[in-house]
Structure formats: C-alpha cells, structure tokens
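User: Teach me something about this protein's shape.
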Amino acid sequence: MEKRKVYFTKEITPESLVKIYEALGVEATGKVGIKISTGEAGGHNYLKPELIKTLVNKLNANILECNTAYAGKRNTTEAHLQTIHDHGFDAIATVDLMDKDGEIEIPANGKHLDVDIVGKTIANYDYIINLAHFKGHAMGGFGGVIKNQSIGIASSNGKAYIHTAGATRNPNELWNKLPEQNAFLESMAEAAKAVSDYMNGHILYIDVMNNLSVDCDCDSNPEDPCMKDIGILASLDPVAVDQACIDKIWKSTDPGRDHFIERVERQNGRHILPYAESIGLGNREYELVEIA
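Assistant: First, the predicted structure itself:
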C-alpha cells in the first residue's frame, strides 16, 4: 500500500496551524465546519479559541460540536451552549451544536454498527476540518482524529450506540450495556468510516499534540499533562495521522511517556488502528514530512 503523507511541525501556534493546513495542498471549499471538542466544564486541556481562531476565520468556518451522552455540563443543549460560551468559542465563530435540532442516520455497514447516528446539521456542510486534540482517554486509551470523527460527530443517542457497540441508543442505558473493549474500539472506527463515506472524503485531519494528559477533554477533572508538547500533525488520512501520533509517543524520550503508554495499553487503545485500516478508513503506513 502507498504510504500516506503526514505533515509535522513542532510549532504550536495559530500561524503554524494555518501553515500545516496549507501544506496538505487541498482547499476546504463551500460551507466549512471545524470539528473540535469544546471541553467539559472544569477541564483545561482542550484546544483554546486563541489557537484555532486564525484558521477558523481564514476558512469562514463554523465550529462543530455535539451533545454528550454522560452527565455533566455538555449533555443538554442549554448546558453545552453555556460551557461553549464560558470557554470562549462563541466569541470567535458561530458554534453549531449539530444535534441541537435532531439527528440523522447514515450507513455504517459494520461488524457492530449498521448505522451511525449523527447530528442533523452534518447535511449542511461541504467540507469538514477534523481538528483533534490528541490525548489519552479513560475508555479508548487515546483520542485523536478517529475518536473526534466518531464519538465527536455522533449525537447523544449515537454516542450511546457507539459506546455499546450497537446494543442501545439510550444514553441512560449506556453504562449497563458496555461491550468487551475491542468491540467498542471497532465501533468507533466503523462510525468514523461512516462519516468519511458520507462526506465523500471531503474531510482533512489535524492532530494537535499539546497538553498531553492521559485524560480526555471530556473529563471535568483531568490529570495534568504528563509529557511536554510535541507539535501538530496533519494528513488527508485519519489512520495515518493517528498512527503517527502514537509513534511520536512511543519514540519519545520524555519521562512521562511511560505513564501515557500505560493508559493506552490498559485499554488496548492501539487496536483501533489496524481495525480502521482493515475496513478501509485509511492506511497505517505513512511518510512523515516536517515543515518549518
């Protein structure tokens, strides 16, 4: 299989975010949405508005989010909009809570998921920038662009459906119907593939490796970062860019890497990558291209 290009810069600035987008050599045209995590109230590791503002403005993009499936400050539209405001995102762009007015089903045709249940307004967008904060995750081991595209674009009901590998769409039943771990990881990959297919490939992928905590931005009380910032990686291939991020962690000499790796391995997190490759979401083989 042909190696995918993954671009990398050590700089994590608004300017370098634009530069790495431009390095991909494609233009996000039409109505553009930038999918991020706006961060759970109490958390502090999420990508900040001041980092993403220049790219958002350049593309005249909306910020995309969906409500969560767990109790907190983002599980209802009203609470989520308040958290978005408190974190400053509505000051830089229109924020579209994609499932605020409902959800739609898109085909998944997976081993676990027959459909993916996503925020209704996905239908309004011509192009999506999948802008993920790469970090650890209590359930997935790690979270990058694949997670941001699967759980991140799923509605509350869709999140329950992914987490339970298709057992329920009811968030109230989620914690009683959790599957074995690999089924959950595979369901995330299947949901990400469903979104990629729906958008007909009109998605590009950026992982920002800063604030490298073992906990996700969905955590209201995350552990402090255990590693120094690494940089920004971008690709047209979601599997390649997440694989490149994992490789950056594994090859790191940072003393905190062992703690991060422990979290990933505890959840068998890397399993999602070969499975995603096997269903055609992308390719784990890549060529790393460093840009200034």
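Now, about its shape. The two ends are 28 Å apart (CA to CA). Residues 1 and 285 are 8 Å apart (CA to CA). If you'd like, I can walk through any region in more detail.
User: That's plenty for now, thanks!
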